[in-house]
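Service request form, structural biology core

Requester: graduate student, group of Dr. S.
Request type: structure prediction, single chain
Budget code: on file
Notes: please return the result as structure tokens.

Sequence provided:
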Amino acid sequence: MRLLSTAQADDIRKALLVAERRSGLRFGLFVGPPEGPRRHFAERLHAVFGDEADDAVVILVDVAGRGVEIVTGAGTRRRLTDASCRLTAMSMATAFSVGDLVGGLLYGIGALGEQATARR
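Core staff response, request fulfilled:
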């Protein structure tokens, strides 16, 4: 089953690129069921950034499991607090709960990119 159209996927890729360019951080997004516990899987995805993990953000959206995880690297945490990530995740989940997957993703990526840029 396809969750996103080609145009929607392109919009999300553009939002990720804009967030990266503005903030100087690396952004990753995973939409789908996690392999194992959601948080653990998100942390494994974050580790894939390797040497860039300190300055990276991973957003995991488990649509079927109705969950969002945001993992940040050590350098990123100075600019994106746990509280701001929780608030962003809750806002995303609200959009998802009314069936707006793309809107929630675009909002979350944009909000995290803006917050990280403001504290740059």
